[in-house]
Automatic annotation (TrEMBL):
This is Gamma-glutamylcyclotransferase family protein. GO terms for molecular function: acyltransferase activity. InterPro entries: AIG2-like_dom, GGCT-like, GGCT-like_sf. The lineage of its organism: Bacteria, Bacillati, Actinomycetota, Actinomycetes, Kitasatosporales. Residues 11-139 form the Gamma-glutamylcyclotransferase AIG2-like domain. Keywords: Acyltransferase, Transferase. Pfam families: GGACT. Its EC number is 2.3.2.-.
């Protein structure tokens, strides 16, 4: 089965869209049916300029939330998040690529979800010169020691 841009999948959010972070209320409040703690394997987080980048890494695990949009808000939310992440399908200048990956809820059940991953050129730069977010949890990193 192929996944199209319009398929109403939940979103896995790991940075500024998480509850309590500055983009959550601006983009998600009133547009979601549910927001559940979740994790995603196969990615790690790198520090960015005020926000993180998720980069594919087989041994990695990132903590975040699985956000399910209200059906009537889905198309608007998808467009808003694409604009926030400056994602345009097929554009080589993208900083992020929107991909489908498996997320795991706290109860262990899996869900296919959209996730914004660092675009290939950004990911390569981060792997060679970036700073990993310890433990794969942006919220914990921001609290500091």
């Amino acid at each position: 089965m192929s996944v199209t841009d319009g398929e109403p999948l939940p979103f896995f959010v790991y940075g500024t869209l998480r509850p309590g972070e500055h983009h959550h209320d601006l983009f998600l409040r009133g547009r979601t049916r549910s927001e559940q703690p979740a994790r995603m394997r196969g990615i790690v987080l790198y520090d960015g300029p005020g926000y993180p980048y998720a980069v594919e890494e087989p041994a990695g695990v990132v903590r975040g939330e699985l956000v399910t949009a209200l059906p009537e808000a889905y198309a608007e939310l998808l467009g808003a998040l694409d604009r926030l992440e400056e994602y345009v399908p097929g554009d080589p200048r993208n900083l992020y690529e929107r991909m489908v990956r498996d997320a795991a809820r706290v109860d262990g059940t899996a869900a296919r979800a959209w996730v914004y991953l660092a675009a290939p050129a950004v990911a390569a730069r981060l792997r060679s010169h970036g700073r990993l977010v310890p433990g794969g949890d942006w919220r914990e990193r921001r609290r500091g020691p």
